[in-house]
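Database export, one record per block. Field names are fixed; values are copied verbatim from the stored entry.
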Amino acid sequence: MSESQQLHVIIIGAGVIGACTTYFLSKNPSCKVTVIEKTDIACGASGKSGGFLALDWNDHSEYLKPFSQASFQLHQELAKELDGASQYGYRAIDTYSIVFDRKSDTFSKKKDLLEWVNKDAVRSIEQIGTLETTAQLHPEFFTRKLIEEAKRTERVDVRIGQGVARLIYENSKDVRGVVLDDGTEIRGDRVVVCMGPWSKDLPLPYDTIRIKGSHVHSIVLQPQDRIPGHALFTTIMHESKIFEPEVYPRSDGTVYICGASDQEPLPKSADQVIVNPKSIEDLTNQAELISSKLSRENSEVIRRQACYLPISEETNAPLIGPHPRYENLYLATGHSFWGILNSPITGKMMSEWLLDGKVSCVSEAVAEYFMPS
């Protein structure tokens, strides 16, 4: 097929949503893709989140249930296809909810279930995920692997270092490309916004994309001892305060911990995200309360980081599909803390929207639920 006959899709943003969309589009020889990224691949939440995956944690929702379950299954398929275990740390894990309270009069009879935590402070412990229902991956490595594989087709061009200043319109509502910050014009047949919390900054003639960012912190520890593959959702009662950090030991021997959030405003780009030293100190202190193996004495903090989770102000659910007021403009953004989990199904849905004009990988009702309004 000649280049002039190919559908040219421009994707703004090289986070996990943009990467998954690019990957699924790259499988079709009738499509070529240009990815525009201002800062770097996986420079936001896609590179700094925990990478936790759950099969059934959205089963309370009629529409999120089939959406997330389909994505969990796609993660399993991708891990086989791309050798996820070695390439991006994919593995099944056990998951626990655990309450720590040194002042409690009653302690859990199950405290020996996890040998590596501070058992003298465990008030309660419950298994909430099994090897069949929960898993993890390293989100940055996953995102980069998808882009790498897509580029192998030679139908994908990734441009890093320039953001999108504005869109190109054939008329006021028919989008036909983008203008980069340096004035370069790139014309295409479709434009997809995968800009996470920065989606709101894309200038549109008549409205804005209603996405906000939630500023959260995390640390990565390198402990002296290897920690088993147990994800922990914790509640820590300490000095009349309650903390709820999440703990994800990774297959490379490191331990990721997150939980400190604040109201820091969204900066202009991902390379300007502020890391609050107090939030890092809080997470480091909480790590010691969870396990002596994660103490300053027995582990080293190797990454101190922060990112913004993209949250839809319209529905609190992701926005996936064609923009209702502009032709050839599509949205795939607002995935909040389930962005890594739901990225494959989002990418597959977007590829179907772009190539077929309809979605078949989920039901019509589910696809309609996520459509921007």
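Remark 1: The CA atoms of residues 23 and 149 lie 7 Å apart.
Remark 2: The mean pLDDT is 96.
End of record.
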